Amino acid sequence: MDNILAARANEVKKETGALADVLQEIYQQLLPVKTGKVADYIPELSKANPDGFGICVVTADGQVFEVGDTAQRFTIQSASKPFVYGLALETWGREHVLARVGVEPTGDSFNAIVLDEESRRPYNPMVNAGAIAVTDMIPGNTSTERLHRLIDYLKGFTDSEDLFVDMPTFTSERTTGHRNRAVVHLMRGFGMVSERFEESLDLYFQQCSLLVSCRDLAVMAATLANSGVNPITHRRAAWSYTVRDVLSVMYTCGMYDSAGEWAFWVGLPAKSGVSGCIFAVAPGQAGIAIYSPRIDAHGNSVRGVRVCEELSRRYNLHLFADHDRPPLFTGS
User: Fold this and answer.
1) Residues 6+ apart with CB under 8 A from 93
2) Active site annotation includes 34
3) Catalytic residue check, 78
4) In a domain, 3, yes or no
5) Domain residues for 140?
6) 78, 172, 227, 272: which is the annotated catalytic residue?
7) What is the pLDDT averaged over residues 249-262?
8) Domain count along the chain
9) pLDDT (tens digit, 9 = 90+) per residue, 132-172?
10) What integer pLDDT is reported at residue 88 of this predicted model?
11) Segment 26-55, tens digit of pLDDT
12) Is 274 annotated as catalytic?
């Protein structure tokens, strides 16, 4: 038995060593890709360097592999939604949250002004309507207290204390967020948000304007991969049953109106943000994060999608793949 374990340990060292080379290879392969465009409907986002590109993988046992602009800070945007959904679940419980926000995927765009015709709920917490309804559930006596509660929860998923709102982006979002205002008024009409809905909308804009790096996002993803325990700090950030619910919704709804193609080709729970970030979760194995600001018509990073497709194929990560092969992202 000792010989078998030693052999497997050597195999794992070779595999994880190869991962660094694979990331470098994929990075170089996709560096010339210039398709897509930087989001400009939020003016502050249009200032991003379109050529920025970083890839980071953090394993469930805390190993970090990175290439490119992984320290570059960008606003988290919709990649914040799964974590805030987790906070709402842990604050109020599943039934309370489900009464306000569904879990059904939709073929509509992320900013569609539409609710479920029967229940009058937003379809799911990954589209803007559902995310705003979830943010409305964050408790606190003041707007500042609510923001600090949200930030403190998200910090548990990182290994950094440096998490704060980028004020120019917040101001830009607040000034141009007319569609979000329209949908929050619609939800208020059906009782899906509280009388504090205007304050909650500002909180949502602040949530989306939090600054993170590609490495931060990979650690956050790895915490979800590790059943809610941060693999760097070894502290529990979320309960395992919360992680189950969050990953389930990410798998079916996280990539908006391309969620079906994503599930088919990549097969991992994931979430994107229009700043050009994507994070994906290989349960029990690793978190993957990519930053590249050029996005496609669905709002997903063009290079980010390609990176995840390549890693899923090379490392057999698809949830429904033949898993007789040993997982390659598990460290020694």
Assistant:
1) none
2) no
3) yes
4) no
5) 15-315
6) 78
7) 92
8) 1
9) 999 999 999 999 999 999 999 999 999 988 899 999 999 99
10) 98
11) 999 999 999 999 999 899 999 999 999 999
12) yes
Q: How many angstroms from the chain centroid is the CA of residue 295?
A: 15
Looking at residue 162, its pLDDT comes to 86
Length of the chain: 332
Tokens 């109106």, residue located: 257
Among the listed residues 67, 81, 85, 275, the single catalytic one is: 81
Cβ contact 287:221 at 8 Å:
yes
How far apart are the C-alpha atoms of 221 and 201, rounded to whole Å?
25
Q: Active site residue: 85, 204, 291, 315, which one?
A: 204
Mean pLDDT of 266-285: 97
Q: Which two tokens stand for residue 87?
A: 């906070």
Examine the residue annotation and report whether 204 is marked as an active-site residue of this protein. Answer: yes
Catalytic residue among 274, 281, 302, 307: 274
Specify if 47 maps to a domain: yes
- Within-domain flag for 10: no
CATH of the domain at 115: 3.40.710.10
Asked if the structure places residue 1 within a domain, the reply is: no
Q: What integer pLDDT is reported at residue 257 of this predicted model?
A: 83
Choose the catalytic residue: 123, 251, 256, 315.
256
pLDDT in tens, 291-315: 999 999 999 999 999 999 999 999 9
**301 to each of 19, 103, 194, 298, 305, how far by Cα in Å?**
22, 24, 34, 9, 6
